[in-house]
Predict the 3D structure of the following.
Amino acid sequence: MSEVELEQLQEKIDAGILLAQQRLKERVKKENGELIVMRDGKVTHLKADEIE
């Protein structure tokens, strides 16, 4: 695989990850749920209204 092909593949992977994150945020907001994330080395619970 060439360098250009690897870069294109990485861009597609990155876009897929961003899309998955956005969909998760939307789902949590819709269901008035909660996300558990790591911030500054600590586990944090984010309620739907705290999600950006």
Q: What stands out?
A: The mean pLDDT is 95. The longest strand covers residues 34-39.
